[in-house]
Amino acid sequence: DVKVTQSSRYLVKRTGEKVFLECVQDMDHENMFWYRQDPGLGLRLIYFSYDVKMKEKGDIPEGYSVSREKKERFSLILESASTNQTSMYLCASSPEITGSNQPQHFGDGTRLSIL
Amino acid sequence: AQKVTQAQTEISVVEKEDVTLDCVYETRDTTYYLFWYKQPPSGELVFLIRRNSFDEQNEISGRYSWNFQKSTSSFNFTITASQVVDSAVYFCALGSGYSTLTFGKGTMLLVSP
Questions:
Q1: Which of A34, A83, B15, B36 would be B48's cystine partner, CB 3.0–4.6 Å?
Q2: Residue range B81-86: average pLDDT?
């Protein structure tokens, strides 16, 4: 089974802090994704990566950056956390970059609160 | 641009009732894929089914069934004899060869005993 592991289930940080959310997958997938989930808004794509050191902006990249130094690991970085970044963050991986034949596999999510 | 609409924000049923979750999609691609995911209270999105645009056969898996109709651009999901464990948020998603997955906003299903 595909396993996508997010480093924290719950995280509380302060405004202005630099925050790192880590995600690791064990299926040698080329592609990894970061989403945020908010009530009434569904899942919105922040960034994705199709190869090591490669990244592409999703629909809502402002205030975020990402890092992919190794194939299995994809980090989401909040450069200077703000209260409007309080949300549920979901990481996913897939052998396909597009929404093609293979589904994306998701981690358990990180509930991030910015105080 | 691709779009997925899940018009039902929240549905409440009593155990053993049948329930249908609606999903309507928009795409200009002729080849595309439709997905359903389940998100229980624990948070992880669980993949349920994938259907490609060339296969309009309905699918049944236990108490779950899916009705894909290209004529109405719909991919509806029915749970027969619902159970409390079916309580979750359900997402419909659309993908094609030229874009990342587009998710609907989700339907929260609450099944009461």
A1: B36
A2: 96
Tell me if B16 sits within 8 A of B39, measured CB to CB: no
Please provide residue B91's backbone torsions phi and psi, each rounded to the nearest 5 degrees: -115, 135
Full 3-state SS string of chain B: CCEEECCCCEEEEECCCCEEECCEEECCCCCEEEEEEEECCCCCCEEEEEEECCCCCCEEECCEEEEEEHHHCEEEEEECCCCHHHCEEEEEEEEECCEEEEECCCEEEEEEC
What confidence tens digit (pLDDT) does each residue in B24-71 have? 999 998 889 999 999 999 888 999 999 989 888 888 889 999 999 999
CB-nearest partner of A45 from B33, B100, B106: B100
Contacts of B61 (CB under 8 A, 6+ apart): B49
Q: B105–A41: do the CB atoms touch at under 8 Å? A: yes
Output Rg (C-alpha) for chain A, integer angstroms.
13
Q: Are A106 and B44 within 8 A, CB to CB?
A: yes
* A40: closest chain B residue by CA: B105
Amino acid at site A45: L
Give tens-digit pLDDT for A42-87.
Answer: 999 999 998 898 999 999 999 999 999 999 999 999 999 999 999 9
User: Which structure tokens are listed for A35?
Assistant: 């989403």
